[in-house]
Amino acid sequence: MSTRVAEILSAILADSRSGIGLPASLVGMCARALPVSGVGLALMTDDGPAGTVAATDGSALELEELQFSLGEGPCVDASQSGRPVLQPDLGRTGRERWPVFAAGAEAAGLAAVFAFPLRVGAIRLGVLDLYRTTAGPLPDDDLADALCFADAATALLLHLQARDAGVGFPFGSLPVFDDRAEVHQATGVVSVQAAVSLQDALLLLRARAYADQRPIGTIAHDVVSGVVDFSDDPDS
Amino acid sequence: MGREQRLAQVFVELADTLVEEFDVVDFLQTLTERCVELVDTDAAAGLMLHDQRGTLHPVAYTDESARLLELFELQKGEGPCLDCFATGRVIANIDLTAASNRWPVFTRAARDLGFTRCHALPLRLRRQVIGALNLFSIGTERLSEDHLAVAQGLADIATIGLLHERAARDQVVVSEQLQNALHSRILIEQAKGVLSARAGTNVEGAFRLMRAHARRTGSLLTTVAEGIVSGAIGTGQLQDAPRTGGAG
Q1: Distance CA A67, CA A75 (A)
Q2: How many CB atoms are closer than 10 A to CB A11?
Q3: Which of A34, A189, A197, A231 to mutate to test the interface with B (most CBs of B within 10 A)?
Q4: C-alpha B216 chain-centroid distance
Q5: B136 — phi, psi (to 5°)?
Q6: Which of A17, A187, B15, B104 is most buried per CB count within 10 Å?
Q7: At what angle do helices B64-76 and B104-112 cross, to 10 degrees?
Q8: B176 and A147 in contact by Cβ < 8 A?
Q9: Which helix (DSSP H) or strand (DSSP E) does residue B216 occupy?
Q10: What is the three-class DSSP state of B136?
Q11: A93 touches chain B (CB under 8 A)
């Protein structure tokens, strides 16, 4: 994980001590750091949008809800392709691609949308959407920073998912983007052994690492080499 | 098939991927595999890319051992790939038994994995170095000038491929390209795990099945990985023995 991502995560954690929710803090910080007018964070599944987690303002929320109800828009495409969808001039290029969404966006006074997929390999978690009332591209440096916010948002969604599952490990206690290939291989193995999705398999691995107080890489190694088996895991 | 004929075939194969559906990781994976094949040595190859923030990342490798050595170099801050990246110069035919003054920790680790020589070739873009192609070989024979020229040619093609993808997209910053490549890599690792559990094999064996299937069906490795993860490609389809042998 880059230092910038770690910096964003510790800043939103500090924010949350003053009572602001982590997702609200992240979208707020993102909107302040970049030349955009609004930011939304949405959950995605393989079937499409699955709800808004946070939005900086009314138009951002409206746009998230619009994509949710239509099932079309930049965030849907970003999630499906796994690549950012950059629409610096929605009025010019968006109408053909997403007729209903583009009309709704224009009605909300928005001219540009930049959607970043939040994923861990095949696991689709959500999308971070940046909106602006004026047309024009994001400069390269801002685009690079937006990618760091997307990485931080991915870490955050994994954390929220664990919290919802009742696995109460502290935020930031485990690295999300572990460079070790074995963690991802083990995720695949566990998904078959426990008959769960890759997303849940990663959660099982992290929970086991936390419960056993061992690094996730060590557990992953044991799974890949067949020492540990999740077939009869009571949590699965 | 003669060596020159095979060489031409590989260059055509790589050029073809530039015009068809393009995937960075798939392209670089093929490139490292062909590199090992064309230098006629018992070698492992790995390719690292720079993220413009001061960090190199292993993106493609023919063997787990190549990736481990690259990660080891990054952790310890010493080794031929790092020197090649820092200077932009080719590092060739380093005898690992005689280079312990230069890289004491790396040479021991490489020898422990059974390697005797190492080589590193820069991915150059004008004056910038954007990555390195690394070869770790077994045996006492040196790589000839011809072999090194072929390896450098492949490193140059890797650079062209990366530029090609940037040009084909609206706005691609280097960090986005690398981030996408790393996620494709993660997808492949997840699929290896899924397949190994389903087929009752180890992850290396699973990867061999995936590569064979991709080659046989003319699909991208990432497409095969997606198919395995989603269940669209069943284990039975992958266990068919390859119909043709040979170098492909």
Answers
A1: 7
A2: 15
A3: A189
A4: 20
A5: -120, 120
A6: A187
A7: 160
A8: yes
A9: helix B203-217
A10: strand
A11: no
User: In chain A, which among 33-62 make CB contacts under 8 A with chain B?
Assistant: none
Write the ipTM: 0.88
Measured between alpha carbons, how far is B71 from B175 in angstroms, rounded to an integer?
19
Instruction: Write the CB contacts of A193 (distance below 8 Å, at least 6 apart in sequence).
Output: A229, A230, A231, A233, B197
A178-215: pLDDT as tens digits: 557 899 999 999 999 999 999 999 989 988 888 888 88
Supply the pLDDT for residue A235.
52
B23 in reach of chain A (CB within 8 A): no
Q: Is the dihedral of CA B83, B84, B90, B94 positive or negative?
A: positive
Kindly state the helix (H) or strand (E) to which residue A77 belongs, with its residue range: helix A74-81
CB contact under 8 A, B71 and A224: no
B34 touches chain A (CB under 8 A): no
Token couple for A15 = 């924010």
* Helices assigned H by DSSP within A165-231: 181-193, 198-212, 216-224
Over residues B102-157, the pLDDT tens digits come to 999 999 999 999 999 999 999 998 888 889 999 999 988 889 999 999 999 999 99
CB contact under 8 A, B194 and A191: yes
Do B222 and B184 contact (CB within 8 A), yes or no? yes
Q: A125-146, pLDDT tens digit by residue?
A: 999 999 999 999 998 889 889 9
Q: With contact defined as beta carbons under 8 Å apart, do A219 and A212 qualify?
A: yes
